[in-house]
Each structure stands twice: as C-alpha cells, then as structure tokens.
Write a structure and sequence with these properties.
heterodimer; A: mainly alpha; 2 domains; 13 helices; elongated; B: MetI-like fold; globular
Chain lengths: ~300, ~325
C-alpha cells in the first residue's frame, strides 16, 4: 500500500463517519476542533508531545545529574520544581518523563491498535473457525484483570521500559479486536460491501479499502481513552517497582522515589503526579469529544 | 429457551475460555527467557539445587505431560507449592482472600453511596452547574493514579491528622472496617468516576420514558418521580456496571494494598514478583481470572433474570 492509500484510509474513515464523503478533510478537522472537549484535549496532548520531543532542549538540567550539595531544595528560582534527594532537578525529570509517556502511548497503544484492528478484521470478515479461535483468545486474555496480567508478563520478561510497552500491547489489543469485529459483522451486510464482492474485488481490497475505513473510527475513539488508561497502568507498574526502573525519569517511578519523602519534600512526588493527571485528562477529553461526535 | 438452558449454555461457552486461561497460566513459567530454574534461584545456585527445583516444578518432562500434570493437580484442588513460603499456594491465597474481598466489597459500598446521589443530582440539574461539577470532578478523580491519591490520603488523614491507621489489617470486624476505610474509600471514589457517567446517561434515558411523562401529568412531585421511578430503574445498571468493573477493581487492589500495606492477595502477588516465586504468581493470576469469569457469569444470569428477552431471542 502506498502512502496516499494509507493516508486515505484514515481520512476517508473520518469523512465517512463524520459527514459526507465529499466533505473536505479540513471540514472534519474543523469539527473536531469545534468540539470544546476534543479541542482542549488536543491542545493539551499536543503540548505534551512537543515537550516530550524537545525535552533535551527544554529541560533546564540533565535529569540524571546528581548534585548532592543541592539535595532536597524546595521549589525556587534556580529549580522551579525543586530537587530530589540526590539533588537532581525535578522539573527536568518531569519534562523527560513526558517523552516516556508519549512513547508508551505511541508504541504500546500503537501496536495494540494495529494488531487489534487486523485480528478483528480477520475475525469479523471470515467468521467461522478463525473467528472462534481469535475470540476465545480475546475472551481468555480479558478474563484477567488488566493490571494483574501486565504484572505477570513483566514478572516473566523482567522489569524495564521496553518490556512494559510490549506487555501493555499484549493485553490491550483485545478490546480493539472486539470493537472491530462487531463493526465488521454489521458493516458486512451493507450494500457497498455486497457490491464490492459482486464485482469480484479481492478480500484484501474489501477489507483494507472498504471495511477498514468504515470501522476504524470507533477504535480511534477507544485508542484515545486507552492512552489515558495505559498511562495510569504504566505509572502504577513503575510505582510498585515492576515497570520502568530508577533512575529512569518515568513519572510513576519518580512518585515511588518521592514516596518516603512526602513529609520533607512534597514536590518530588507531586509534580510527576501532576504530569500523569495532565496527560490522562488530555486523552480523556479527546476521547469524550470524539465519542460525542460519533454518537451524534 | 428457558432460563436454565440459558444458564447452561453460558456455562458451556465458558469452558473453552477456561481452558485457554489455564493454558496461559501454565505457559507463564515456560515463557521465562532462558532457564526458569536458574531465573528463580539466581546465578549463584548449585547444580544440585537447580536440578531439584526443575524436578519439583516438573520442568524435565515434555510439555504436554507437564500440562496434564498441571491440570490433574488443579482438579485435586492444588496449585502447587510456593517457592518462597514453602507452603501450598491454595492455603496461602485462602488465608489472604478475606482481606482483598473485604476491600472490594467495601469499595463497592462506597461507590454506591457516593455515585447514586451524585448522579441523581447531576441528572436533575443536567446541563447546569451541578452537572458540570459532577463531570469535572469525576474527570479529575479518574485522572489521579490511585497510588498517588492513596499516598496523599495516607499522609493527610493518617500521618498528619492521625484519624486512621497508617498500615496493616486489624483484628475483629470493626477494627478491620476501620483499617479498610481509607483504601476502600479511594477505590470507591475511582469506581464512582467510572460509574457516574453510565448512571447519568441511564437516568436521563429513563426520564424520557413515557411512564415518567404519565407520572408528571398525574402531578407527582419531582421527589416522587426521582426516588420512585428514576432511582429504582437506575439501580440495575449500577449493579451491572459495578460487576463489569470488578476486573479493574481487583487490578487496582494490587496497588492500593501495597500503599496501605494490607495483607491481601494483590500485595502477595507483588511480593511473589519481587522474589520470582513463579508458581505463586501463576496461582494468584489464575484465582483473579476465575473470580472475574465467575463474576461475569453471575452478572449474565442476573441480567437474564431481570430481562428475559436476553435469553428468549
């Protein structure tokens, strides 16, 4: 599939969902921006992404540099968010944490999104035994509490950020597969799919060219809510010590480091916690806004 | 189809899922990169001890035979022996199940106490100030990681003000409730953030029903309409939403039990992860999965009991 095709899958899906196919692409964008929820959410996540990408240039200090003489300094002019026990600048660490948050969403949710869409497509389009197998696997994985299964996977493969992305993807693709499958089952009966079949288009063309653009939208909505969820899960895992390991400036790990120091240095754990809240609110608002439009 | 047949069919549908769940749990040990025995005992372990552990975990047998042994053991009600505690895993889990179940139950109670009035209030004044307050506060509560809220509450209400115990589990019913108050309040709060949204939209839907209009034309007061019709019809979705969120609640209990040093199975899971007690990790994951499957089954049956259209079609 060339670039133009891949782009058109998304834009056409958005067009089909939010209006006539011939509405220009920017009309859709305008609609998304006009919704107050998704507008604020998009701005928040946009800022987060920029901060994450340019973290090395924005952060005033090296997030790993220990200056033991400046240990536990409260927020002030030289260190806006204060310093931690080892004299590291909390602000720089929070800023670098933004990049990790972005990576968790892009890699963890990204893999889950792609795998879930493909698995759901196979399941919903072909039905039969392939559907049975995929859906039973989905049911089984979803029988575990999300956090518990991720913890078990991390226990098997060992702690660390890379395994964290992987573990999150293994567990969260299921929800996408379910959403896509149920869309395919109803969408398949529509005339345009029947017509495509009658003309003799290949399965691949029907799935990628016709069904996918028409069923991807609900998964995009879910993906933004999933990002919020995954940020919380990743932070929880790092907090309990099975996710990102210190000294990596992941927000949950930073809260764990500041946990014992809340009475003497509230700023060490508070600012990373605000970072998590900011991100989760941003993604939730995008999700809410998109869902409002989907339901209208 | 009768209710009995519906219940039976749902049960039979669960069997393949149960089988795959068992297989996933079984495979956990085998997905460990390298030699599981070495991974558990560390690089300093002697060859004799490694061999001994391999033997006790049955790792020398072919895979299908191991799975067979795993299943027959399970059928006898055994989940194997914990490496760290050197005790049967079923006993370990049962001794701590009470804490986790009490935590989950009390969180659900808190959730109902908070979310019902909140969503009634939001519904009654929808589109106005109280509605926004409810929505924004639930967004904020949802965005805070539970462990962070836990730490905040622990520091404010337990350490600073001394109103609640800082850690552990009490003795006797009242003392236990006292110890569980803060942790279950926090979980209940999060659950409220999840439930209120559904509840609000359900209530608004009920309000648009014709019997509500009829009740209004009869001149019933708002109070009667909300308490007698709207609340009554909203109780059912509340229970369903609570049931559906049990998985989330059990997952969060792991984190909250750690923050409040509660001796539940969630905290035991993390202990097991840290000391690489894989049989215990397998056992706890399985118990969590079984609890959720059972819960979903019961929710389905309750659903069928209340709305027979579900199984008649």
């Amino acid at each position: 599939m060339n670039n133009r095709n891949a782009g058109s899958v998304i834009s056409r899906s958005i067009n089909l969902l939010f209006g006539d196919e011939n509405i220009a692409r920017w009309e859709t964008v305008k609609k998304i921006i006009r919704n107050p929820n998704s507008r604020i959410g998009l701005i928040m996540i946009g800022i987060l992404t920029l901060v994450g990408i340019f973290a090395p240039f924005i952060a005033p200090y090296d997030p790993y540099q220990q200056v033991l003489t400046e240990s536990l300094e409260p927020p002030g002019l030289s260190h806006l968010f204060g310093t931690d026990l080892y004299g590291r600048d909390v602000m720089s660490r929070v800023i670098h944490g933004a990049w990790i948050a972005v990576k968790i969403c892009v890699i963890g949710v990204g893999i889950a999104f792609i795998v879930g869409n493909l698995a759901g497509a196979l399941s919903g389009y072909y039905e039969g035994w392939i559907d049975t197998i995929i859906m039973r696997i989905v049911d089984s994985i979803m029988a575990f509490p999300f956090l518990v299964l991720v913890i078990a996977i991390m226990a098997i493969f060992g702690p660390g950020l890379k395994n964290l992305y992987f573990a999150i993807a293994i567990v969260s693709w299921c929800q996408y597969a379910r959403i896509v499958r149920s869309r395919y089952l109803s969408e398949k009966e529509e005339d345009y799919v029947r017509a495509a079949e009658a003309v003799g288009f290949s399965d691949k063309r029907i799935i990628f060219g016709h069904l996918m653009p028409n069923s991807i939208a609900p998964t995009i909505v879910y993906a933004s809510l999933d990002c919020a969820l995954v940020i919380l899960v990743a932070a929880s895992l790092s907090f309990v010590g099975v996710g990102a390991q210190p000294p990596i400036p992941e927000w949950g790990a930073q809260i764990a480091e500041g946990r014992q120091l809340l009475q003497v240095g509230w700023w060490i754990a508070t600012f990373p916690a605000l970072g998590i809240m900011y991100t989760v609110i941003g993604f939730s608002l995008i999700g809410d806004g998109l869902r409002d439009m989907l339901e209208k | 189809m009768s209710l009995e047949r519906y219940a039976l069919r749902r049960f039979l549908e669960m069997i393949p899922v149960l089988f795959i769940v068992l297989f996933i749990v079984f495979l956990m040990l085998h997905f460990i990169p390298g030699d599981p025995a070495k991974n558990i005992l560390g690089i300093m372990a002697t060859p004799e001890r490694l061999e001994q552990l391999r033997k006790s975990l049955g790792l020398n047998e072919p895979l299908h035979k191991q799975f067979y042994v795993f299943l027959t053991q399970l059928a006898r009600g055994s989940l194997g022996t914990s490496i760290r505690y050197k005790a049967p895993i079923t006993e370990l889990i049962f001794s701590r199940l009470r804490v986790t179940l009490s935590l989950v139950f009390m969180s659900a109670v808190f959730c109902v106490i908070i979310s019902l009035p909140l969503s009634l209030w939001a519904t009654k004044h929808r589109g106005k100030f109280p509605d926004y307050v409810a929505r924004i506060s639930s967004l904020f509560v949802f965005s805070m990681p539970e462990f962070w809220t836990g730490l905040l509450f622990l520091n404010i209400f337990a350490l600073r003000l001394g109103w609640f115990p800082t850690r552990g589990w009490g003795s006797g019913l009242l003392d236990n409730i006292y110890h569980l108050f803060l942790p279950s309040f926090i979980l209940g709060l999060f659950l409220t953030a999840l439930v209120t949204r559904t509840l609000r939209s359900d209530m608004i839907e009920v309000l648009q029903k014709e019997y509500i209009r009829t009740a209004r034309t009869y001149g019933f007061s708002d109070r009667t309409i909300y308490l007698k019709y709207v609340l009554k019809n909203a109780l059912l979705p509340t229970i369903t939403v609570l049931g559906l969120n049990l998985g989330w609640l059990l997952g969060s209990s792991v984190v909250i039990e750690t923050v409040f040093s509660l001796p539940g199975i969630g905290a035991m899971l993390l202990d097991a992860v840290i000391v690489r007690d894989y049989p215990l990790i397998q056992g706890i994951s399985l118990v969590f999965a079984l609890a959720i499957m059972l819960n979903n089954y019961i929710v389905d049956i309750i659903y069928g009991l209340i709305d027979p259209r579900i199984y008649r079609s």
